[in-house]
Each structure stands twice: as structure tokens, then as C-alpha cells.
Amino acid sequence: MAMDDEELDAIRRRKLMELQNAQDQAVAQQQMREQQQAQRQTVLRQILTPEARERLGRIELAYPDLADSIENQLIALAQSGRVQRAIDDATLKQILERVMPRKRDIKIERR
Questions:
Q1: Helix, strand or coil for residue 48?
Q2: 8 is a domain residue
Q3: pLDDT tens, 55-76?
Q4: Are 51 and 88 in contact (CB under 8 A)?
Q5: Quick check: helix, strand or coil at residue 87?
Q6: Considering the domain boundaries, does residue 56 fall inside one?
Q7: Which terminal Cβ of the chain has fewer Cβ within 10 Å, N or C?
Q8: Could you tell me how far CA 35 lies from the centroid of its own chain?
């Protein structure tokens, strides 16, 4: 019986260590994601005017995937040095018009 208790304690310790390691990894991944997001926001703050950032924020509420894609493209442009001046709201509108899906007009005819 004493041997079973020792084995059970060893198994419990091993499981506890595994859970702690998994939790530590999850915390580290979360911190890395937060750090990457902070870096993205810093770059966007540098290349977008406040009005353009506000517009992008509103788009993110409606189309999160689209906003993420646009942010990635803008960051890539900034990192490659192709953004010479801050992107204003009008320029962002032009970019969005090219990227946004076209709305389809639905016409209902009654007979």
C-alpha cells in the first residue's frame, strides 16, 4: 500500500508540473500577442492620422477580418518605406473603396 501512495503522489506531482508548464506557456503566448498588438498599434499611430485611425476602428467593428487585412497591408507598406507621409482619412477611404466588397443592389419588383 505504501508503494501505491508514493506512485500516486509522483503521478500527482508530474501532472501538477505539466499543468503549471502549460499555464506558463499560455501566459507567455498571451504576453507575446499583447506585445505584437502594441507594436502594430504604434506603427499604425505613426502612419495614420487620428481621423483615419478612427475610421479603421469603426471598420474593425463591422468587418474585423477586413480591418486586420488592411492593417497588415498598411504595416507592410510602412516597413518597406513606401509610406512617405501620414495616411489621412481621404486616402484611407480610397484604399477601402478598392478593398471593400461591393454592395449589391437588390431590386424587388411587384407584379
A1: strand
A2: yes
A3: 999 999 999 999 999 999 999 9
A4: yes
A5: strand
A6: yes
A7: C
A8: 11
What residues make up the domain containing 80? 2-99
Question: Are 52 and 91 spatial neighbours (Cβ–Cβ below 8 Å)?
Answer: yes
- Residue 44: name the closest of 74, 64, 77, 66 by CA: 74
Q: What is the CATH number of the domain that holds 67?
A: 1.10.8.140
Cell numbers linked to 88: 489621412
CA 96 to CA 90: how far, in whole Å? Answer: 10
Give pTM, 2 decimals: 0.69
Say how many domains are in the chain: 1
Share in percent of the chain as helix, strand, coil (round to 5): 75, 0, 20
Domain assignment present for residue 48? The answer is yes
List of the chain residues with pLDDT < 70: 1-3, 101
Rounded to whole angstroms, the Cα distance separating 33 from 37 reads: 6
